[in-house]
């Protein structure tokens, strides 16, 4: 800790006394602190969490061994032997037809809202004409996209919608989905039902690094894709970074879930508490922050977390996240709270305080922002409209949510008339000469003369 910095980080995290949880969150006191925040706020140390060499080794195994290596890796990491990873299309259809009617209705509602949002957000072709030079900008979808849907601690049909529907709105022709198999070697029926609802073409019982590798490089039976999208644990996120360039990687580092709640007494402490818990229950690797300027209110939130956790069937996973990477940050003012937010650059930000509509104007770095006590991030996770695939680990500083744009690339069609050519030829020639590019210059300065007079020896 640098001398002269007026802050404190509690080293006492939690303990159990007669079954009662005392102090869940690490406390960081920035009241009275002046100076840069980057030296006082903890950051995830991604390099120490995953051995990149191990990720690269798995990718290499898939590239060299294809389907055989994928089967061996699935047995190694998922403890199940999957001889045929591709799910027959009829199984997806049957999963949808057998789905509980109320759940099917909920999925359809989410499907409608998410698709509508991305249809509205999709870029359109447009033309710009200057000096009779017409440029048409055309959004061209990739042909084949790979979607990664996590498994393990929970089941994520919502991620099927949040990855497949932006791709559909973009016009992608083929969708491939990979998700880890269960211990029985199957995929949960609701995930298959969601894949059917979204028009996913191929589903494979493959997870982890090996799924990213086969989507990027292909195998004897699986064709590679053009773009990979979807969240995952630190191993999956690192694998996507490793294959970037061979294949497009949609959005940024979509790793373990994160949330920052900025709260005051205008929001019930129970609401702030459950909204911290709802992201933390994804399990270890995520981060949860409560930022407040009222210590008494912050303590009420901590007490509410303790009580609510006792009712959670996912208490162990949630508690591990909160005790490892849960923080209570005390600040002097709402303005300082937003400065902390911009330094953290969280995946999810909830402004559960007075003046949230004004405060959000100063937020620069966040994947998604939710305003007020009635906007839990869970609404965004399922059906607000935007994708819940968001940047994590501070990458919201330079990237945002998964969108239609991640599945398209802009193609420009340039049409030049003779008068348009005449209008810019001199400028093009001068610029080319300034760069020392003779052929570039000759393409405009000599073009007409060579057409009329031919090439002279």
Strand content: 15-25%
For this structure, what is the CATH class of the largest domain? Alpha Beta
Give the CATH topology of the largest domain: Rossmann fold
**CATH 2nd-level architecture of the largest domain:** 3-Layer(aba) Sandwich
Give start-end ranges of low-pLDDT stretches: 1-22
Strand segment count? 17
Average pLDDT works out at 91
Which structural traits does this protein have?
457 residues, alpha/beta, Rossmann fold, 3 domains, seven-stranded mixed sheet, five-stranded parallel sheet, 17 helices, 17 strands, 43% helix, disordered N terminus
Compact overview of the structure:
By secondary structure, the chain is α/β, with parallel strands linked by helices. It contains 17 helices and 17 strands.
Ordered list of secondary-structure elements with their pairings:
Blueprint: E1 8-9, E2 15-17, E3 20-22, E4 26-29, H1 46-49, H2 52-78, H3 89-97, H4 101-121, E5 126-130, E6 133-141, E7 144-148, H5 157-170, E8 174-179, H6 189-198, E9 202-205, H7 208-217, E10 227-229, H8 234-243, E11 248-249, E12 258-263, H9 269-280, E13 287-292, H10 295-309, H11 315-325, E14 326-330, H12 334-344, E15 348-352, H13 356-359, E16 368-371, H14 377-382, E17 408-416, H15 418-434, H16 438-445, H17 447-453
Helix pairs in contact: 2-7, 2-8, 3-6, 4-5, 4-6, 5-6, 7-8, 9-10, 9-11, 15-16
């Amino acid at each position: 800790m640098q001398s002269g910095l007026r802050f404190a980080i509690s080293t006492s995290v939690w303990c159990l006394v007669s079954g009662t949880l005392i102090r869940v969150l690490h406390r960081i006191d920035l009241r009275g602190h002046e100076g840069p925040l980057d030296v006082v706020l903890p950051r995830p140390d991604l390099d120490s969490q995953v051995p990149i060499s191990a990720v690269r080794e798995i990718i290499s195994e898939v590239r060299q061994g294809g389907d055989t290596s994928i089967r061996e890796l699935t047995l190694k990491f998922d403890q199940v032997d999957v001889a045929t990873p591709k799910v027959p299309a009829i199984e997806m259809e049957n999963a949808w037809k057998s789905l509980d009617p109320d759940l099917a209705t909920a999925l359809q509602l989410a499907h409608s809202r998410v698709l509508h949002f991305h249809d509205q957000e999709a870029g359109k072709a447009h033309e710009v004409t200057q000096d009779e030079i017409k440029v048409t900008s055309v959004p061209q979808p990739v042909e084949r996209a790979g979607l990664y849907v996590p498994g393990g601690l929970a089941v994520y049909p919502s991620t099927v919608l949040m990855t497949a529907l932006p791709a559909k709105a973009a016009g992608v022709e083929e969708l491939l989905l990979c998700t880890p198999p269960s211990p029985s070697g199957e995929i949960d029926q609701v995930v298959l039902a969601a894949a059917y609802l979204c028009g996913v073409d191929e589903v494979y019982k493959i997870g982890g690094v090996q799924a990213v590798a086969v989507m990027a490089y292909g195998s004897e039976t699986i064709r590679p894709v053009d773009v990979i999208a979807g969240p995952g644990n630190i191993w999956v996120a690192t694998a996507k970074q490793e294959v970037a360039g061979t294949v497009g990687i949609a959005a940024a580092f979509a790793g373990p879930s994160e949330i920052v709640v900025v709260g005051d007494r205008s929001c019930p402490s129970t609401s702030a508490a459950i909204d911290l818990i709802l992201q933390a229950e994804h399990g270890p690797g995520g981060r949860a922050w409560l930022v407040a300027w009222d210590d008494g209110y912050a303590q009420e939130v901590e007490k509410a977390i303790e009580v609510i956790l006792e009712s959670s069937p996912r208490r162990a996973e949630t508690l591990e996240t909160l005790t490892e990477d849960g923080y209570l940050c005390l600040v002097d003012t709402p303005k300082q709270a937003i400065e902390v937010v911009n330094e953290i650059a969280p995946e999810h930000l909830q402004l559960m305080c007075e003046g949230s509509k004004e405060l959000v104007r100063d937020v620069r770095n966040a994947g998604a922002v939710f305003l007020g006590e009635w906007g839990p991030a869970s609404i965004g996770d399922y059906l607000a409209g935007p994708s819940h695939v968001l940047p994590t680990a501070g990458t919201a500083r330079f990237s945002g949510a998964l969108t239609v744009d991640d599945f398209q690339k802009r193609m420009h069609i340039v049409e030049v008339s003779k008068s348009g050519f005449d209008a810019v030829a001199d400028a093009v020639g001068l610029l080319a000469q300034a760069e020392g590019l003779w052929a570039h210059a000759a393409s405009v300065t000599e073009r007409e003369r060579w057409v009329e007079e031919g090439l002279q020896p």
